[in-house]
TrEMBL record:
Name of the protein: DUF190 domain-containing protein
Lineage per the UniProt record: Bacteria, Bacillati, Actinomycetota, Actinomycetes, Kitasatosporales
Annotated family: Belongs to the UPF0166 family.
Pfam families for the chain: DUF190 (PF02641)
Source taxon at top rank: Bacteria
InterPro entries named in the record: N-reg_PII-like_a/b, N-reg_PII/ATP_PRibTrfase_C, UPF0166
Species for this entry: Streptomyces blastmyceticus
Length: 118
């Protein structure tokens, strides 16, 4: 798959302890993105944050470190990302879903050719 130029970035911010059928929610999102044939997905664990509940979660306090923020970031063409977004309606009860336009400058796998599988 070649990915270059204008694209759409989907960011889903959920809690680390959020689950879908006894599986981490972030993992379910990544596996569904993979099954949908999207260009890629990455998960980033936050060290501190708060959301709509206004409760600050931080890795510095053991009592509050159980539900740190986790972001799943997916980048692909606008058409493919927008087609994937409805799948999140079923998965994300609490969290934040963002879409923003980005420009892909380089998308290269280990094979060295643009779009090669990593």
């Amino acid at each position: 798959m070649r990915l270059h130029g204008n694209a759409l970035r989907l960011t889903v911010v959920v809690g680390e302890s959020d689950t879908w059928h006894h599986r981490p929610l972030y993992s379910e999102i990544v596996h569904r993105a993979h099954a949908a044939g999207l260009a890629g997905a990455s998960v980033f664990r936050g060290i501190e944050g708060f959301g709509a509940s206004s409760v600050v979660h931080t890795s510095r306090l053991l009592s509050l470190s159980e539900d740190l923020p986790v972001s799943v970031v997916i980048v692909d063409t606008e058409e493919r990302v927008r087609a994937f977004v409805p799948a999140l309606d079923e998965l994300v009860d609490e969290g934040l879903v963002l879409l923003d336009e980005v420009e892909v400058v380089r998308y290269t796998g280990r094979g060295g050719e643009p779009g090669d599988a990593a």
